[in-house]
From TrEMBL:
<dbReference type="InterPro" id="IPR038727">
    <property type="entry name" value="NadR/Ttd14_AAA_dom"/>
</dbReference>
<dbReference type="InterPro" id="IPR053227">
    <property type="entry name" value="TRPL-trafficking_regulator"/>
</dbReference>
<dbReference type="GO" id="GO:0035091">
    <property type="term" value="F:phosphatidylinositol binding"/>
</dbReference>
<dbReference type="GO" id="GO:0070300">
    <property type="term" value="F:phosphatidic acid binding"/>
</dbReference>
<protein>
    <recommendedName>
        <fullName>NadR/Ttd14 AAA domain-containing protein</fullName>
    </recommendedName>
</protein>
<dbReference type="InterPro" id="IPR033469">
    <property type="entry name" value="CYTH-like_dom_sf"/>
</dbReference>
<dbReference type="GO" id="GO:0045494">
    <property type="term" value="P:photoreceptor cell maintenance"/>
</dbReference>
<dbReference type="GO" id="GO:0005525">
    <property type="term" value="F:GTP binding"/>
</dbReference>
<dbReference type="Pfam" id="PF13521">
    <property type="entry name" value="AAA_28"/>
</dbReference>
<feature type="domain" description="NadR/Ttd14 AAA">
    <location>
        <begin position="28"/>
        <end position="162"/>
    </location>
</feature>
Amino acid sequence: MISQRKYKYLRIDLKADFFSGGIRFSELSEEDAMKFQENLLKTMVQIENTFFELADTCSRNCLIICDRGAMDASAFISKDKWEYLLGKNYWNEIELRDTRYNHIIHMVSAANGAQAFYTLEDHSCRSEGVSLAQELDQNAAAAWIGHPYFDVIDNTTNFEQKIRRMIECVCHKLGVDTGDRLKVNARKRKFLVQGPLPPDEAFPKFSDFDVVHHYLQTTTPHMQARLRKRGQNGHWSYIHTIRRPAVENQVVEVKTQLSQRDYQNLQAQVDESHFTVYKTRRCFIVTVNFVRRGSEENLDQPEICQQSQYFQLDIYQEPGHERCKGLMLLETYTSLDDEGIKKCLPKFLNVVDEVTGKPEYSMFNLSLKEDWKNSKKYCSYMPVNGQDPHLVKLARQKSQPCQHINGNAAT
């Protein structure tokens, strides 16, 4: 499907080259495991850079899919050793995770939620039992928590539908219209969270980011433009977003990754009618267990399954408008119905209302300096994920033809 849409497709498969050579990670000592991950990461980065440079010179839009990504190494060694490797090699997680790949897809292992299909037979690269495979899969997913475009494809459907969900997810991010071939029903949901914020121990493994938004001047009141700076420990990634007027009832957002210099230059266009928005963004995965009734042949043997949902909790910080004081908004991207998403909402948070599509919880309106009653810029119509209200088509500028997509954790 991608090739039919005038994309050149490249694939980087490092797993087959290394693990089919007889290496068994479970047999390595702690020190050998660290050395292996360091050398593997160096090799991975060099191979990826080679593909990225080739893609940059390609006359067509180019899609690169990586079987593994740079952050995967952190899933197999301790946090202390990972931080040691980062310092030793002058790496940082913002560059390895956020700016290196445009999109992360975690394909949940069959060991988590579809154990009946997990087997070591005919898998030369797989040697782990179910329990270890579950742990490694969870670690691999946690390694990518915090990437701005991270999707988890779990085992709540059969394998064919799982693959379709993955393809749908990729096409959606590329802005490829799949028509009726793939049902697109995932959308962003937003919830109001009442404070106080629970202690860190109440959360599953999470990653916190500092996020700064600036709204920019535009040539028409129907267009929105903003800058986003997002980072940890002094390392930043920069995004420029333009939301264009609806075309055929569909909102188009153009997102462009920026250099620090471009980001600073564009700040000259800041719209002074908006406050700068400061947030702490906490990213985490919630996993819940549920019982799925058995097949017609085995109605008396229900199956225990898992549902994994990726969340972002935006905690507004000062300085800002009084209306944003203490504000916390929880967001997720999902195709679940109301009942399904209700089961997945974090129980440790006091979620008081769904505010998807409500203009008073739009960041554009929240950042306005004027009182809403007196403001001519208040946007009362908020499209929910684009058209009516299920889809935003994410267009990519021609200046960014190369899409690096990492799908970590094989099924």
